[in-house]
Write a structure and sequence with these properties.
- Helix content is 0%, strand content 50%.
- The protein is mainly beta.
- The chain is globular and about 40 Å long.
Length: 209
């Protein structure tokens, strides 16, 4: 399989193709492995980082993922998207001012975050469904909508995590259901240990069967 190591690399302002597709800063798929140490992924369109397919692995250390822009229809715009059984490990990373979500995990994604800051997203900090997510010693703050939402039969572990300052979306297009909570659990299992949910709008933690 293909393996790539990036040291202090900057990836900026990638744009979508004429059909409005792609635009990703870093696109990893087909079982490839990427390690990125230091560096900035800034101002790319639709996705800062994409990881997809079984066997695909992305490891980010001390990386900043910033200012991911939506497409021309004002859709997408996540800092990181992981799906279809791909793996992400992020340590001491900052995800700031990404248009839609900080991290979008779906279709059995496997994600481990440690000492990560996710802030200033316009729909939510982290959205996950039926995969496995562990978040350690991290801060999810000042996001619109929700800090973290688990929407499927997945498993989430939060250990020493602060979720704060979540507030209702303003001028977000296209319109989305108004989920406003620090943490929302709509399926699966979530375990939180030594966490703090503070100064969130509407609900600190919302759990629905």
């Amino acid at each position: 399989s293909t393996s790539t190591v990036l040291e202090d690399v900057e990836i900026r302002e990638t744009r979508a193709d004429p059909d409005g597709e792609m635009g990703y800063g870093l696109d990893v798929f087909g079982g490839a492995t990427v390690e990125m140490h230091g560096g900035i992924i800034d101002g790319n369109q639709r996705l800062g980082v994409m990881a997809v397919n079984p066997g695909t692995s992305v490891m980010l250390t001390d990386v900043q993922i910033l200012n991911t822009r939506p497409d021309e229809e004002a859709e997408a715009g996540a800092g990181i998207q992981v799906w279809n059984s791909a793996e992400l490990v992020a340590t001491r990373c900052i995800l700031d001012n990404n248009y839609w979500l900080g991290i979008h995990a779906l279709q059995a994604a496997d994600i481990h975050l440690e000492e990560v800051i996710i802030r200033n997203s316009r729909l939510g900090g982290i959205l996950t469904d039926d995969g496995a997510l562990s978040v350690l010693s991290s801060t999810i703050e000042d996001n619109q909508g929700f800090g973290l939402a688990q929407m499927g039969a997945g498993y989430t572990l939060l250990d020493d995590v602060v979720v704060r300052g979540t507030f209702p979306p303003t001028n977000f297009q296209p319109a989305q259901p108004a989920l406003v909570a620090g943490v929302a659990v709509y399926g699966g299992q979530l375990i939180a240990v030594g966490c703090s949910l503070e100064q969130n709008s509407n609900v600190g933690m919302q759990v629905s069967g």
